[in-house]
Write a structure and sequence with these properties.
This protein is of the alpha/beta class. 29% of the residues lie in helices and 23% in strands. The two termini are 30 Å apart.
Length: 217
């Protein structure tokens, strides 16, 4: 089965729709979100509507938890905090209830999806010890993949370090090696940033492909 793995939409409805269109052309069968659906208030409901109405499995992100009132803010930069608190005020009741019911992690056959701790990732960024705090499997299990939203820099991480992708952004996963995979950010990080990223995971091929979209084109 072919999965599209997204994270950090951050209320960027244009980037979300572009990513979904690209995944449709790649014949992705199910989209899964690793959290942080919202940030900016103006289009937050639009993004939640898409995920909720299409029934995409979604993990609760730290932005989402604050926006829906399940958690109080900590560790946010002032601009992000302002946006998220404004989103909390403007979130529809239907979307608030949906977000309050989101799990902290999802298990599928052969892989898992978690969000990760935003505060800790700024300290232990890309460190295997930090990533293992979010490993949902017993240590004896091998050949598992765990998708994680933090770090938000795309990458595939094994105990020996970051694994290289080929020129097409693709990697065949070793069935004896456990990996964490960060699909990056669907939402663009600023007005001057044209790039949106997500991943495609093929469970039959046991392959991962990192996809980059230039939304300025």
């Amino acid at each position: 089965m072919k999965y599209g793995i997204i994270a950090h939409i951050n209320s960027d409805i244009i980037a979300l729709k572009a990513a979904l269109h690209k995944m449709e052309s790649a014949k992705v069968e199910l989209v899964v979100c690793a959290g942080n659906v919202v940030e900016k208030p103006n289009t937050a409901n639009d993004c939640v509507d898409v995920l909720r109405e299409w029934g995409f499995p979604t993990v609760l992100g730290n932005h989402d938890a604050v926006a829906c009132g399940s958690d109080e803010p900590w560790g946010f930069k002032s601009k992000s905090l302002t946006n998220i608190l404004m989103t909390r005020e403007g979130l529809s009741d239907k979307n608030r209830i949906w977000m309050q019911g989101l799990p902290c992690g999802l298990l599928f056959t052969g892989f898992a999806v978690v969000h990760g701790n935003a505060g800790a990732s700024r300290v232990y960024r890309n460190k295997w010890e930090y990533l293992m705090e979010h490993w949902p499997y017993p240590d004896r299990e091998r050949g598992k993949a765990c998708f994680i939203a933090h770090p938000d820099k795309p990458g595939v991480y094994s105990p020996s370090g970051e694994l290289p992708l080929d020129e097409d952004g693709k990697l065949l996963l070793d069935t004896n090696t456990n990996v964490f995979i960060a699909p990056g950010r669907v939402g663009r990080s600023g007005n001057k940033d044209p790039w949106s990223t997500f991943g495609i995971f093929d469970t039959e091929e046991r392959s991962y492909q990192q996809v980059y979209l230039n939304l300025a084109v």
